[in-house]
């Protein structure tokens, strides 16, 4: 699994805007607004708005809060005590097979009288960009998977002599959000190699 560089992650988080936090305290509490969804280079506004966000807050005297934003929601307002707060943020994206963690971030911030603002930089999760076939079996023979580059790879399977290749169902597992052909569904391999396209949660593909 490859990890993105820190600059990409920083841009992405500011991308998630995920965590543009504005605080306007009113004694003895602070009014805290979390806004998401603007400023990303690698993630569009529409994509950022499609994420589900979760926030854990730990504050003075052991105070704690949990808040979440559903896809399409861009802000949540809280009333919190003045003082030091640790904010942990997570972003998720739903797809047909479930949900993938997009990124996480954390910051400690002191809420003081007057207007406060803070940006939580989130680190892009490998689950968001990964897209690979991790195992492949044809006619009960396991294939050898070779990476060509970031955009493509090759699976080699040597099946027994006489195997009917006109209708044979490969069984495979994969990372990412989806594959263009389902595991266990028969395909015709008699004409030569066939392609499988794996799509990551971020929309990028690998063949």
Describe the structure.
There is one protein chain. Helices cover about 10% and strands about 45% of the residues. It is built from 3 helices and 17 strands. The strands form 5 sheets. A 5-stranded antiparallel beta sheet has the order 4-3-6-7-9. A 4-stranded antiparallel beta sheet has the order 5-2-1-8, with no helix packed on it. The chain has a 3-stranded antiparallel beta sheet with strand order 11-10-14, with no helix packed on it. The radius of gyration is 23 Å and the shape is rod-shaped. Residues about 1-30 and about 35-40 have low confidence and may be disordered.
Based on the model shown, name its key terms.
207 residues, rod-shaped, disordered N terminus, four-stranded antiparallel beta sheet, mainly beta, five-stranded antiparallel beta sheet
What's this entry about, in short?
This protein has 207 residues and is mostly beta strands. The chain has 3 helices and 17 strands.
């Amino acid at each position: 699994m490859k990890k993105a560089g820190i600059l990409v992650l920083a841009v992405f988080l500011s991308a998630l805007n995920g965590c543009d936090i504005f605080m306007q305290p009113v004694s003895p509490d602070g009014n805290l607004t979390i806004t998401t969804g603007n400023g990303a280079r690698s993630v569009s506004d529409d994509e950022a708005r499609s994420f589900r966000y979760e926030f854990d807050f730990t504050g003075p005297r052991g105070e704690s809060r949990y808040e979440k934003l559903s896809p399409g929601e861009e802000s949540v307002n809280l009333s919190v005590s003045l003082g030091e707060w640790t904010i942990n943020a997570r972003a998720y994206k739903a797809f047909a097979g479930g949900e993938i963690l997009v990124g996480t971030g954390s910051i400690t911030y002191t809420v003081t009288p007057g207007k406060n603002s803070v940006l939580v930089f989130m680190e892009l999760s490998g689950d968001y960009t990964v897209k690979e076939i991790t195992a492949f079996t044809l006619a009960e023979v396991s294939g050898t998977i070779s990476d060509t580059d970031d955009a493509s790879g090759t699976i080699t399977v040597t099946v027994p002599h006489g195997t009917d290749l006109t209708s044979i169902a490969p069984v495979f597992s994969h990372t990412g959000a989806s594959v263009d052909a389902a595991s266990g569904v028969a395909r015709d391999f008699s004409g030569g190699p066939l392609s499988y396209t794996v799509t990551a949660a971020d929309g990028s593909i690998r063949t």
